[in-house]
Structure formats: structure tokens, C-alpha cells
Design brief:
- This protein is of the alpha/beta class.
- It has two domains: 200 residues, Rossmann fold (3-Layer(aba) Sandwich), CATH 3.40.50; 31 residues, no CATH class.
- Strands 3-2-1-4-5-6-7 form a seven-stranded parallel sheet, with helices on both faces.
- The radius of gyration is 17 Å and the shape is globular.
- Bound molecules: nicotinamide-adenine-dinucleotide.
- Nicotinamide-adenine-dinucleotide (NAD) binds next to helix 1 and helix 6.
Length: 249
Amino acid sequence: MDLNGKTILITAAGQGMGRASALACAARGASVIATDINDEALASLKAENASIDVCHLNVCDPQAILELAANVGPVDGLFNCAGFVHNGTLLDISDDDWAFSMNLNVTSMVRMARAFLPGMIERAKETGSSSILNMASMASSIKGFPMRTAYGATKAAVIGLTKGIAADFVKDGIRCNALCPGTVDTPSLRGRIEAAPDPVQAEKDFIARQPMGRLATVDDLTPMILYLLSDDSRFVTGQALLVDGGVTI
Ligand code: NAD
């Protein structure tokens, strides 16, 4: 999957799947702009690959998104990766929790796509195709999980948002897809495991729901991410693509 000549912007690229994607896209020849709210994480990414441009971005800051889009100019690929897992049932979700999850997981993607789409449409006139990739989850409209009501609702909204963008801009050369991972071993998953009353059991429970008997690594996900951001997926749009180790068989 060749990304030479492409400029790709990624949110939440400081750690986890966003970081792995930034490194993988750069290794395939893309000019990568890696953004995150965590400057230390960005600095360590820059130390790992100096060719990657890093930039502070809080995806919940509408003005910062507009300024970034103006500074960066047109991109060929936009990977909206930022997201947050609320842990709890419906009865645990306060109005503030709900608003926070919707804002970070969904509204941020609306704002990012709205800010970058005009430039992406211009790029697509030259190249034939620009790609937006939105991070959803198997926990969404695809499958329900205990303690993931707010999270699943936001990720279901991400899939709906993805399909809407795909339908509206297909004739402009814009493709828009959603990635739906299973449980991936990332720093925030480790945090959820450590925060459980019994972390050893919590890890066993996460693994037990994976038919392949293990958690995903970020490297299990990067091939699909590269595919969806590259022209190899030029005939794929409006899809929610599962990479879940068989959970939803
Ligand atoms: P992670 O959760 O470990 O890291 C998330 C990154 O997001 C951090 O670098 C953090 O600094 C950054 N971030 C947090 N708030 C931000 C904000 N307001 N603006 C910008 N950046 C912000 O990484 P992960 O586990 O790979 O998760 C990435 C995405 O994948 C999320 O959308 C998550 O919901 C989704 N996802 C994760 C899993 C999993 O099991 N890990 C499964 C399915 C989907």
C-alpha cells in the first residue's frame, strides 16, 4: 500500500492506534501530520520518526480545528482517531458524561471533517480520491457490550456520520469509511484493566470474549488503516469495516 505523495492528518496520534498509524503511514511514504492533546507523546513520536510533523490539537476545541485546517491546507487523508471509553450502564451516565462522550467521540469528527473537506475535495480533483477514516468500534450499532452504552451509542453515531459523508460526497471523489476494531492492547485499554477492581480477572475477561484467544495488537489494525487511507481501497466507501478477531462472527 503506497502512500507516496499523500498528506495524511491523524488525530490522537500520540499513542495507541493513532500513533501506530502515523508511523505506518510515514513508512509507506506519506507526509504525516500527527496531532494529539498530549505534547509529551507527540515529542516521543517525533523522536521515533523525525519526518512526521507533530502538532498539538484538542479535537474538542472548534477554533483550534479551524486554525489547524487553515495552517495545514489540503490533505489527502484524514484519520479521525480520537475517542474516549465511558464505563457504565445507562444508570451511571450523567448528562455531563453523555455530553462529553458525544463531544469527543462524534462532534469532534463532524468538526474535523467539515474543516478539512473543502481542501480534500480540491485535492481529489487532482488525484481522483481523498479518504476520511473515522474510528468507530465493534461496540456500536454492530454489537452491544455491558457497561458500554454511552460508548456504543457514540460509535454507532460515528458509523451513521460516516455513511452520510460518504453518500453526500461520493461524486466529489471523497471516500469515507469507519474502522471497527475489537479489543486492542493500547495504553488506554491497560488503564481500563488497571482501574478494574480485579485487574487480572479484567484482562482475562477481555481476552475471553475474543474467539482468537488474544487481544489485538495495534499492528493487527494498521494494515486495514493503511488500506483505507490508500488508493488500494479506491472502490470502498460508506463501510464500517470490522477487524475484531472474530467477536462478531
Ligand atoms: P488510546 O485511547 O490509548 O490513546 C488515545 C489518545 O487520544 C491519547 O494519545 C490521548 O492523548 C488522545 N486524546 C485524548 N483526548 C483527546 C482530545 N480531546 N484531543 C486530541 N487527542 C486526545 O488509543 P486507542 O486505544 O488506540 O484508541 C484510539 C481510538 O480507537 C479511540 O477512538 C477508541 O475509542 C478506539 N477504539 C479503541 C479500542 C481498544 O480496544 N483500544 C477498540 C475499538 C476502538
